[in-house]
Write a structure and sequence with these properties.
Shape: globular
Strand content: 15-25%
Distance between the termini: 66 Å
Helix content: 25-40%
Order of helices and strands: EHEEHHHEHH
Structural class: alpha+beta
């Protein structure tokens, strides 16, 4: 009888590092240069600075030569977009609901129309990936067409990083356009 040695176990490959991408769109009630929108415009710089300094913040879309993305109108002339990447869902949640940003959200009806469909979408991206506006708008369209999934979800119907990492392995990699 020969002694057998335990089979060497192969360690599982670590899941890929992921970050959380976020897009929200807002339909303006009035143009950005309208006095009724002035309080919102005045809050842009301080809120963006707070986001940039927030724990877990990775990246945000800004228009070339500007401090924000309000001049970009890929979803319509009266629709502004906010596209960011965060290390974790908790980091984004904390910034959104536990910082000065919450005051802006409380006042949003002063400046923005109520959306009938989802206006916020979250999805996991490989760490280091910078999502494009087209990619983000496609995720929002996916959420509105098919409901929440690891591909496109919300805070209320979220999927964790592990589920997102699993989804990344089966999805075609998205290449940013230049």
């Amino acid at each position: 009888m020969t002694a057998s040695t335990p089979a060497a176990s192969t360690p599982a490959a670590p899941p890929p590092a992921v970050h959380l991408a976020q897009l929200n769109v807002a339909t303006l009630r009035y143009p950005l240069d309208d006095p009724r929108t002035a309080p919102f415009v005045e809050l842009l710089d301080p809120v963006n600075a707070a986001a940039d300094a927030a724990p877990g913040f990775v990246w945000r879309l800004v228009e070339d030569g500007a401090g924000d993305a309000t001049g970009l109108r890929p979803a319509g002339e009266d629709v502004i977009v906010n596209l960011t990447v965060w290390e974790t869902q908790e980091a984004l949640w904390d910034f959104t609901y536990r910082s000065g940003h919450l005051e802006v959200m409380r006042r949003r009806r002063e400046w923005f129309e109520r959306h009938v469909q989802a206006h916020l979408v979250l999805w996991w991206v490989p760490a280091g990936h910078v999502p494009t506006v087209d990619e983000a708008l496609e995720r929002l369209a996916d959420l509105n067409a098919h409901g929440p999934s690891p591909r496109a979800f919300t805070f209320a119907s979220s999927y964790g990083a592990a589920e997102g990492a699993q989804h990344l392995r089966t999805a075609e990699p998205v290449r940013p356009t230049v």
